[in-house]
Structures are given as structure tokens and as C-alpha cells.
Write a structure and sequence with these properties.
heterotrimer, A mainly alpha (335), B alpha/beta (298), C mainly alpha (283), B: 298 residues, alpha/beta, 4-stranded antiparallel sheet, 10 strands, 22% strand, C: 283 residues, mainly alpha, MetI-like fold, 11 helices, 72% helix, 0% strand, elongated
């Protein structure tokens, strides 16, 4: 039962990824315009054109070209960046940790703030505080991360400049790290000086990314909590002598959290999508910032690679959330 | 005060309702002595469940008690702070809920749902609490208690769940249990077993039991005393034996006549006559007017 | 029952008026831009560069919201920028709606292979980061207003398709559709006459939201300098410029940001307001 479910999900994931690869390929190759001309950096020589033609097999049919490209991708060969002349995969993997850390930090912030809002709103349901939380959530949801980023830059970069609003870390500290996962590494090595510098840079972009998701979590979790609070087993727990806080956290939360969890899965991919513009806004050296540079420089192999990696990330996250949902729901697990 | 539970003049209203709206509970008074089973009967909406909820401190937020006393084991619950009241109730009273399908937390195993009160509120050790839970599950005739304690609610049938809930109610050896229509949600075949089980457990543990039901047949089998409720007002308070011999109130008599008799399926249904309803409504209205005049809450 | 929450909410009942008011104001500004803008938005004057807004020391009369580093009037550029924002909102929003809602309706009502294909496409689209997708499309299509509009339609049709598909499926399962079928109506007729009217409120709400999204996507594209030509005033372009000179002339960033903020908020609040009022499904 469970194995079958997982297998089906894996298959659809594969189909989706295949579809993504086709769409990327088609967008870049079939749209009007000479692909070679588009791939050329300014000042290319005829020899360059020759080389590119051979490299991508442009003399063959579109279908053959696709399979050549796909074959490479499957083997981890995403081609060579036109701008830097380095393998795309290496470039992408070099930037991925920065984006992942930013996204995970934003997720944590969103869950903490959203969870706090939901629990507070449930605890104080029917009061003006709950109304204020509702209104705040509605506002936070209406405004996209791009604007939240700008607002935070103004507030904490200009009006009250306590945070850095540019970059991932102070440049002179980069050589202190052995891996690309700066944040994790600083925590594991207990280098809180590095951690502090990272946080001063990352907190604002992460918060900008987190605000809409926090509002969604706050809204949905509060709604399911409030529905759960009316159920008989919650009432029964009250007669056992438990107070409101305990009842909310132990009896209601676990049952109310499932819809929120599914939603967080979908929303987390949206959040990662948001990193593209937020990284640009905060000059944060991640995948999204590199993608925009690649587009401006017309570095199409690099763009292809980044888009594929993002799609892979998205589908894998959806897969994980689906599995998590199955594990956390005892009825599904035993059903 | 000899009674274990003693409700005096309890009145409740809907919060925020305009002045002059009838009360939900109208100066309700009743006693349950230690070891006594008191039936609380009435049509749906008469407020019988609400009395049970008031005793256990789980009235809905929309309901507000405006006067009265609820004495449980010599203290007035309504004069306590909410957290004191909660602990007091948790330690000395328990609920057998109406619907076993919804009264167990679906995401928690059975064992902790029985032992949590013993450990968290009464301070038992986990081992003691688990031993006690196994003992009780055995007592309510659940086979393989150890396995059931590790199960999730959805793995048990409705009857089994109600047994678990009964065991859980008796676990802390409370002196007072409120059973809120504990058999209505069950299959007819299971109803009898559960009813017998509750009666046995009550007798063995000597618990005071407030048995909320709309079924006079159940009352005749389980209860010692009986309060009949109409529109939030107690219209009759009597011993069960006397009641079935000769109901003291016209409304009670009509209610009794309306109860289908399994022994005589051909007897047909006798709805409560309109004249009786009118009479009891007039009586309630008069009492309401008198209460208002009394100036308690004008 | 007295619910303090409801009172807080009701006090915001005027949000429909406020957001509608701002959008009408904006539309007027866009229409009348050449006549009401105090200056030519493209006019550069290095002698009046980086003038602060009117209440600050050093402000010049006539330049109400100050000037940017090239001496262009911020207020005039915001007014002219409203044109781009609203054109994109209207055209991209409507086109996205037409394509997305049509596909969603077909998938949700006809089911079968059409649904299979469309649902799979939606899955694939959901695996793209939208901003990156839009930027990629612009890179391929070249900059310009048409490219921006095409990019928005291509990345965002799924928003309509997803919701309308689910909605059409729900409506298709209802008795009134079955009775129309029994009455011998053709499938296409049922879809257009029975299903579509019931889905329309939902589509209307989504359209309002989509317009806000279109405005923000255009701003993001201008911000990364991939929207229309960089001379023409756009809010996103002004924000990008303001971002680089944040500490010397914050007003170049702040005023277009406020305009953008209010516009996006108005569109979404309008959508939310319409949802509360007309749409039992999304509510």
C-alpha cells in the first residue's frame, strides 16, 4: 500500500522533471531566433560559432539535439558556462548551499512566527488581539516578497541601520570556511563570531521571504486549531484537569497541523522561487542572483542548468512533504 | 452536607443575549450522594447535558453562569479560580462522553490517553499509571490490554473505544462521574453491554454518578434517583422506584407514557399531549417571572 | 455573541472603497499623464540632480518629490510609470485569465485526456520558479512591453487553470448539470451556459489578484532591467536606480515603492473584498 503510493509519486515526479527539461529546451531552442547567435558572447569569432555548433549538435534534428542534451544532464553534464568557461554543474552546486541556507532559514522564521501567531490567536480567540492578528496576516499576504524586501531595506538598512543589506557575509571572513554551507558550518564549529556576521547579513532577506509564509501558516493553523478545539477529545482533556495552553499544544496541535504541513510543502517551493528576486535585492551570492546574471549575460547553458536544479529541488521537496504527511498521519500509515 | 455533588440554584444564560431572554438553566438544584446514581432526563434542548458540563467546568464559552453554587466534595466550584477548579475537577471527577468515535484523540496512542491524568495531574509515576491502566482495561473486559494501550483509536471498534473511555474515567478513582448519554452513539447490540458495564463499575467503585439520558428505560435499569428537566427547569426530583410507580408531575407522567415499551411493541407511540406541554410551559414561565421579580438579576 | 474580532474586521469594511479609490486615482493619473505631470519625465538636468522632496532643506519648488541622480522629476516619472503598470495589469491580467480559465474549464469539465494533459502541464509549471521563468522568457523574447506581457501570461496561466479546474469539477458533479445533460443539452453548451456562469465570480476575483501580480512582475522585470527600454519611466526601474543610491537620495526609492505598494495592496484588497462579498467558494 505504502510502497505503491511512494512508487506512484516517484513516477509522477519523474514525468514532471522530464516535462520541465522539455519546456526549458523548447523555450531556448524553438523560440524564434538563432540559438547560436543568442549563445554567443559579444565579439565571438566564426571559430567560436563552429565550436558551439559542434558542441550542441545544432546541425542535427531538434529531437536529436534534445536527447544529446538530456543524455548529458542525466550524467551530470550540464554543459559549460559561456561566461566563465567552467562546467555548469560545478557553478550551480557552488551557489546552491547559499540559496538553501537562506530558504531554510526563512522557512524556520516563517514556522516560528506563523506558529506563534496561530497559537496566540487560538489562545485569545474572540478577542481584539485575534482580530489584529487576522488583519496583520491579511496585509502580510497581500504584499509580495519583493516589496517586503524593499521595506526591510529601508527600515533596517537606512532608517535604523543595524543589519547589513548587501551580501551573504563580510568578504574578509569567506576564507574562514571549509564548506559552502556557511551557516551550518559556523554552528557546527561553534564559531559564533562567524555566525553573528552571517545572521546580520541573512536575517533581512530571510525575513522578507518568510513574511508571507508566516502569515499563511498563522492563518491556516489558527483556523484548524480553532476547529479542533471544539472536538470531544479536547473537551475530555479539559475535564482531566488540563489548562488551555496544554490542551491547545498537546491535544489540538498535532491533529490540526496536517493541513498546514501540506500547505507548507507547496509554499516552501514558492518561497524558494522568491529567493531569485530577494537574492538580487540583497546582493546575496546565491543561485537566483547567479541566474539573473546569467540571463543578462545570455549564458544559456548556465540558465538551463539553474532552472533544472530549481525544478529538481521543487519536485523533491513536494515528494518529501508527501511522504512526511503519510508518516505523520497514523490513519494513512496503517490504512 | 452529605451529598458528594450538590447543585444549588444554578442559572445560566447565553452570553450577550438581550435582557429578558429566558435562561438556559433556571435555578437548578440537585444532589448526588456518594455511591448514588442520579438520572437526569429531559427532551433534547432541556439543558441536561449543560448541567453535566457545568459540573465538569466545560460549558461552552457562549454560556455564562449567572448565579448558583456547585458543591463538589465540600467546596463550591464556582467560587474557585479557573485553574484551581480545573485541578479539583481533574482530581475528583470524570466524564464518560457521548460519542466514543470522537472522544479519543486520533493521533495519540490509547495508553497515554488513559494515564495522562494520573501522571500529569495526580503525580503518579509512569509505571504505576500504566499498571493501573492495564488493570482497568482488564476490568472493563478488554482482551490484551497491553496491545490496546499501544494502539491508535482508529484501530478499535466503537464498543471497544467506549470501554477504553470508561476505564479512563475510573482510572483516577474519582468520587464523581458524569455520564453524558454514554450509549446513544453505539450500536443497539453494544448499548446493553456498555450500560451493564457502567452499572457494574459504578457499584464496584462506589462512585457517585450523574447519568444524563433521554431514555427512561435506561433510567429504570441504572439509576437510584431521578431529576426530570423541562426547558432548563427541574420539574420533578424523586426516587426512581417511586417515579415508575407514580410520577409526581403531569409532564413526567406524559414523558413516561411516551416511552416505547419493548415488552409491548403493539402499544404504539403516545406523544406528550399538547395540554401537558402548555401546562408545563406556563409553570416554567411563572417561575421565570417570579425569579425576575425576586430581583436576583432584573 | 459579542465578537471583538468581527468589530476589528468590520472597521476595515471600507477597504473596498479605499483600494478602489486609489486605483481610480491611478488610472486618471495614467490617462492624463502628459497634462498633469509637472515635468517631462525624461528631461535630464544635472543642475537639479538629487533634489530632496519639498519639505526638506534644499528642495526646489516644482519638484515635489525631488529628483533622481540625472535630475529627472520623481513625481512625473511615477505618474508616467503608472501607465506601464496599468497597461500591463489590464492586458496581461486579461490575457492570463482568458487562457488559464479556458484551459481550467476544459480540464475540469471535460476531464479525460484533456484534463490529463493540462494537469500534467500545471505540475510541470509548478516546478519552475516563476520569477526565473519570466526572466528566462524575456531573455529569449527580448525586452519590451509585449515580451513582458507574454512572459506574465506564460508563467501565470496556471493560477487560473488550477482554481477554475477544481471549481468546474465541483460544479460538474452537481445535479443541475446532470439534469441539463438529461435534457439533451450539448456538452459545450452545458459548459458555457451552466458551468461558466457559476465559475465567473471566482474568475473575477482571481483577475483582480492577477492584475496586482502582473504589476509586481513588471516591476521586478524592470528592477533587473529586463522590462521595457530603460529610458521609459517604470516604477521597478526607479526602484532599481534608487536602490543603488539609497543613502544619498532615498526618495528615488521610497516614492515609487509607495506607489507600487499601494497599487499591489489595492488590487489584492479589492480581490479579497470581492471574494467576501460575491464568492462563496473562495471564501
Amino acid at each position: 500500500m505504502l510502497a505503491r503510493r511512494i512508487l506512484t509519486r516517484l513516477l509522477t515526479t519523474l514525468v514532471t522533471l522530464l516535462g520541465v527539461s522539455i519546456v526549458v529546451f523548447v523555450v531556448i531552442r524553438v523560440v524564434p531566433g538563432n540559438p547560436i547567435a543568442m549563445m554567443l558572447p559579444p565579439g565571438a569569432t566564426p571559430a567560436d560559432i563552429e565550436r558551439l555548433n559542434a558542441l550542441y549538435g545544432f546541425d542535427r534534428s531538434i529531437l536529436a539535439q534534445y536527447f544529446i542534451w538530456l543524455g548529458g544532464v542525466v550524467q551530470g553534464d550540464f554543459g559549460t558556462s559561456i561566461q566563465t568557461r567552467q562546467p555548469v554543474l560545478g557553478l550551480v552546486l557552488g551557489r546552491l548551499p547559499a540559496t538553501l541556507e537562506l530558504a531554510i532559514m526563512a522557512l524556520v522564521i516563517a514556522v516560528v512566527i506563523g506558529g506563534f501567531l496561530a497559537l496566540t490567536g487560538t489562545r485569545l480567540r474572540g478577542t481584539a488581539t485575534e482580530g489584529a492578528i487576522d488583519v496583520g496576516n491579511g496585509m502580510a499576504l497581500s504584499v509580495p516578497v519583493f516589496l517586503w524586501g524593499l521595506v526591510l531595506i529601508l527600515l533596517f538598512g537606512v532608517l535604523w541601520p543595524v543589519f547589513n543589506i548587501s551580501g551573504r557575509i563580510s568578504p574578509h571572513l569567506v576564507q574562514e570556511f571549509h564548506t559552502r554551507f556557511f551557516l551550518f558550518e559556523s554552528v557546527l564549529r561553534l564559531r559564533f563570531d562567524l555566525w553573528l556576521d552571517l545572521m546580520r547579513h541573512m536575517l533581512m532577506p530571510a525575513l522578507a521571504l518568510a513574511i508571507p509564509l508566516a502569515a499563511i501558516i498563522g492563518q491556516l493553523l489558527k483556523q484548524s486549531l480553532k476547529e479542533t478545539m471544539h472536538l470531544d477529545y479536547v473537551t475530555l482533556a479539559r475535564t482531566k484537569g488540563y489548562g488551555e495552553n496544554h490542551v491547545i499544544v498537546r491535544e489540538a496541535l498535532r491533529n490540526a497541523i496536517l493541513p498546514t504541513l501540506t500547505l507548507i510543502g507547496v509554499q516552501f517551493t514558492f518561497l524558494i522561487g522568491g529567493t531569485v528576486i530577494i537574492e538580487r535585492l540583497f546582493s546575496y551570492e546565491g543561485l537566483g542572483n547567479m541566474a539573473i546574471d546569467a540571463v543578462i549575460n545570455r549564458d544559456l547553458p548556465l540558465i538551463q542548468g539553474i532552472v533544472i536544479i530549481f525544478a529538481l529541488l521543487f519536485t523533491v521537496i513536494n515528494l518529501i512533504v508527501d511522504m512526511l504527511y503519510t508518516v505523520l498521519n497514523p490513519r494513512l500509515r496503517h490504512g | 452536607m452529605s451529598a458528594y455533588l450538590s447543585i444549588r440554584n444554578l442559572s445560566a444564560v447565553l452570553k450577550g443575549a438581550p435582557k429578558g431572554t429566558p435562561r438556559l438553566l433556571r435555578s437548578v438544584s440537585l444532589d448526588v450522594a456518594a455511591g448514588e446514581v442520579r438520572g437526569l432526563v429531559g427532551e433534547s434542548g432541556a439543558g441536561k447535558s449543560m448541567i453535566g458540563k457545568a459540573v465538569l467546568g466545560i460549558l461552552p464559552r457562549a454560556v455564562q453562569v449567572i448565579e448558583g453554587e456547585i458543591w463538589l466534595d465540600g467546596v463550591d466550584l464556582l467560587r474557585m479560580t479557573p485553574s484551581e477548579r480545573r485541578r479539583r475537577i481533574g482530581a475528583s471527577a470524570a466524564l464518560i462522553p457521548q460519542d466514543p468515535m470522537t472522544a479519543l484523540n486520533p493521533s495519540r496512542r490509547i495508553g497515554p490517553q488513559i494515564t495522562d491524568r494520573l501522571v500529569d495531574i495526580l503525580g503518579w509515576t509512569r509505571a504505576d499509571a500504566e499498571a493501573r491502566a492495564r488493570e482497568l482495561l482488564d476490568e472493563v473486559r478488554i482482551p490484551d490490554p497491553a496491545r490496546v494501550m499501544r494502539s491508535y483509536p482508529h484501530e478499535l471498534s466503537g464498543g471497544m473505544r467506549q470501554r477504553v473511555l470508561i476505564a479512563s474515567a475510573f482510572a483516577a478513582e474519582p468520587k464523581m462521574i458524569v455520564a453524558d448519554e454514554p450509549t446513544t452513539a453505539l450500536d443497539v447490540t453494544v448499548q446493553k453491554q456498555i450500560l451493564r458495564l457502567i452499572a457494574q463499575m459504578q457499584a464496584r467503585h462506589g462512585t457517585a454518578l450523574l447519568f444524563v439520558t433521554h431514555d427512561l428505560g435506561v433510567v429504570s435499569k441504572v439509576c437510584d434517583t431521578l431529576s426530570v428537566l423541562y426547558a432548563g427547569k427541574v420539574v420533578e426530583d424523586t426516587r426512581v422506584r417511586d417515579f415508575f410507580a407514580a410520577p409526581g408531575h403531569a409532564y413526567s407522567a406524559a414523558l413516561l407514557a411516551a416511552t416505547p415499551k419493548y415488552t409491548d411493541p403493539d402499544a404504539g407511540l403516545n406523544p406528550v399531549p399538547a395540554a401537558v406541554i402548555e401546562a408545563v410551559q406556563a409553570e416554567v414561565a411563572a417561575a421565570e417571572a417570579a425569579w425576575r421579580k425576586g430581583g436576583a438579576h432584573g | 455573541m459579542v465578537d471583538a474580532r468581527g468589530m476589528v474586521r468590520r472597521r476595515l469594511g471600507l477597504r473596498l472603497w479605499l483600494s478602489g479609490g486609489w486605483l481610480v486615482l491611478l488610472a486618471l493619473a495614467a490617462l492624463l499623464a502628459p497634462w498633469i505631470a509637472p515635468h517631462n519625465p525624461l528631461e535630464q538636468d544635472l543642475f537639479t540632480s538629487r533634489l530632496p522632496p519639498f519639505w526638506m532643506a534644499g528642495a526646489e519648488p516644482g519638484y515635489w518629490l525631488g529628483t533622481d541622480s540625472l535630475g529627472r522629476d520623481v513625481l512625473s516619472r511615477i505618474i508616467h510609470g503608472a501607465r506601464v503598470a496599468l497597461i500591463v495589469a489590464l492586458i496581461a491580467g486579461t490575457a492570463t485569465m482568458l487562457i488559464g480559465a479556458t484551459l481550467g474549464l476544459i480540464a475540469g469539465y471535460y476531464r479525460g485526456w484533456a484534463d490529463m494533459v493540462i494537469s500534467r502541464l500545471i505540475d510541470i509549471w509548478m516546478a519552475f520558479p516563476p520569477v526565473l521563468f519570466a526572466i528566462l522568457l524575456i531573455a529569449v523574447l527580448g525586452t519590451g512591453l509585449t515580451s513582458v506581457i507574454i512572459a506574465i501570461v506564460v508563467i501565470d496561466w496556471t493560477r487560473f487553470a488550477r482554481v477554475v479546474r477544481a471549481e468546474a469539477m465541483a460544479q460538474g458533479a452537481m445535479d443541475y448539470v446532470a439534469s441539463a445533460q438529461v435534457a439533451g443539452q450539448r456538452r459545450l453548451g452545458i459548459m458555457l451556459r451552466e458551468i461558466l456562469p457559476n465559475v465567473l465570480p471566482t474568475i473575477g476575483v482571481l483577475l483582480t489578484l492577477e492584475m496586482g501580480i502582473a504589476v509586481i512582475v513588471e516591476a521586478i522585470l524592470s528592477f533587473v532591467n529586463l522590462s521595457i527600454s530603460s529610458d521609459d519611466p517604470t516604477w521597478g526601474g526607479m526602484i532599481a536606480e534608487g536602490r543603488t543610491a539609497l543613502h544619498r537620495s532615498w526618495w528615488v526609492l521610497v516614492f515609487p515603492l509607495i506607489a507600487l505598494f499601494l497599487t499591489v495592496l489595492s488590487f489584492s484588497q479589492l480581490g479579497e473584498g470581492l471574494k467576501d462579498r460575491f464568492d462563496p467558494v473562495l471564501r
